[in-house]
Amino acid sequence: MNLPFFLDVEVFIRSLILVIFIFVLTQIVQRVKNILRRHWVERETDTARKGRIATSISVGVTTLDGFIIIGGFISLLNILGIDMTPILASLGIVGLALSLGAQALIKDFLAGLAILTEHQFAIGDEIKVGSVRGEVEEISMRATRIREYNSLLHIFPNSEVRIVANASHQWMRAIVDINLPYSVDLHQAYEVLKSAAARCAEDEQMKPLLLDPPEVIGWNGLSDWAVQVRLAARTLPGKQYGVQAILRRNALDALDQAGIPVALPTILANELPNPRS
Questions:
Q1: What PANTHER family has UniProt attached to this entry (predicted)?
Q2: Each residue of 223-233: pLDDT tens digit?
Q3: How many angstroms separate the CA atoms of 34 and 29, rounded?
């Protein structure tokens, strides 16, 4: 007499053991992922390499989890005595039907493969996709997750990630513009800013972030109320904002100590005569 699988004690126990084994195996894989991140990612000093390692670990673990679950499901069907032959035979028809609806999924997978093999971006990179700019939080073969700086999470199917601006590729440029009034001695101001930039290059907080010493580019623009001077420096990826803050602070402090004011935009408001008067 063939009993239902939930009444057959042996089949039930074997099925339960398999389910527990699959669960434990997936948890072990997650633990291994965390260990690899601690030993490889957190100890890596190269920012670009760190992002690629984190991305490879994330995608590898996701793929391995998928194989474990699929393999466990097939093993469970065998334990329950379900004949796989008719199922495999029907897969041809089902596969044809699914292929028509899975074209987007296949496109996402191929696009994800291109992202990984071409190193277009990695976890931790600052990128811009369309109007969204933020940090890459996760990359899978299906989608890319980008976290904006206001904490909003965007999930892009990989096939939709067509044009990417990567602000973390090799180096970035920190740019600081200072507006000076026409009334000041511009040559003196230039020398003061040049000295401030040189001091920034020796700043212990700033030095590890720089690839080149900061420099005064020169007069960057003229307006009806100010002359604009630009300072710039090449930095490590993602470090340009911190460098800009330090460079701007030192430049303003140096100008203040030299008694050189910065220009502020002014608005002239003229009172129109009352037509009734």
A1: MODERATE CONDUCTANCE MECHANOSENSITIVE CHANNEL YBIO (PTHR30460)
A2: 888 899 999 99
A3: 9
